[in-house]
Amino acid sequence: MFLSRTSFVLAMSLWGLQASAHEFWISPEAYVIPNGGQVQAELRVGEEMSGAGYSFNPRTFERFELIQGGQTVEVEGRLGDRPALDMTAPGEGLLVVVHETTANRLTYTQMAKFEKFATHKDFDDAVGQHRARGLPEDRFVERYHRYAKSLIAVGDGAGSDVEVGMKTEILALANPYTDDLAEMPVKVLLDGAPRADAQIELFEKAPDGSVTVTLHRTDAEGMGAVPVKPGHEYLVDAVALIPLDEGDPTQTPVWWTVWAALTFMVPE
User: Fold this and answer.
1) Which residues in 156-170 are b (16+ Cβ under 10 Å) and which e?
2) Residue 207: beta bridge partners?
3) Is residue 8 within a helix (H) or strand (E), and if so which, with residue range?
4) How far is CA 200 from CA 27, 77, 264, in A?
């Protein structure tokens, strides 16, 4: 599908606004495809695994890749293509889709909104730090990046997830398509190091479309485990908040949020 110019411009104007407040994830059309089949996935922004899909646009991403068996293939497309990912699978096995966005900004005009966000994402000391740093409360800027991965089974789906070197990422420590799982073990990384005692938000979509959200935590080694069920689709999300000091706090970002997301499905 190819967007009209008017639709494309409108979509891009909404991209940063919606992405700032909601989850961002890779949403495959199918998580299990035959060898040599077509890999198709939307880039979605929304809440509780429901949201708009966005088109292929190199201006909005730093990386968009398929990784399989030690080989990396850049995702190709034309400006405005939807779904954003529509390529022939490079080979058989577990396919890791990687997407890293460009930088975006969010301007807060009410401290209460920042406090609500900080509470939701378990940044208990963020407001205290903000005030201790003497930062403005009526208008300040946050920079944010999204780092998303998705696991797709091609053919036999054999293989394992890999670290891809993003600022932050969630690493699956089991294969949901070949392993018999009641829990999916994961590892949350920041700058390649484990994030200890980090909140993990799990979105679980049942076959009837209903979504359940639960909270979990990593241990001292950055490891966590989330419950999974056959036939259900999952989005695992973890956010880190990093203080910035880049000059005048009324003109430059004072916080940086980095969002890690991982999607997969557990077959019946």
Assistant:
1) ebebebbebebbbbb
2) none
3) helix 5-21
4) 19, 32, 15
> How many Å apart are CA 98 and CA 22, to the nearest integer?
19
- Give Rg (Cα) of the chain: 19
Tell the burial category of 88 from Cβ atoms under 10 Å away from its Cβ (0-12, 13-18, 19+): exposed
Closest C-alpha among 188, 266, 265, 263 to residue 225: 188
In three-state secondary structure terms, 115 is: helix
Rounded Cα gap, residues 202 and 227, in angstroms: 9
Listed residue (87, 47, 38, 46) closest to 64, CA to CA: 87
pLDDT at residue 20 in the model: 52
pTM (two decimals): 0.92
| 95-142 pLDDT tens trace | 999 999 999 999 999 999 999 999 999 999 999 999 999 999 999 999
Distance (Å, whole) CA 157 – CA 83: 22
Residue located via tokens 């378990």: 122
Distances (CA, A) of 98 to 44, 155, 163, 206: 14, 20, 10, 24
From CA 256, how far away is CA 258, in angstroms rounded? 7
Q: How many CB atoms lie within 10 A of CB 9?
A: 11
| Pairing outcome for strands 61-68 and 93-101 | antiparallel
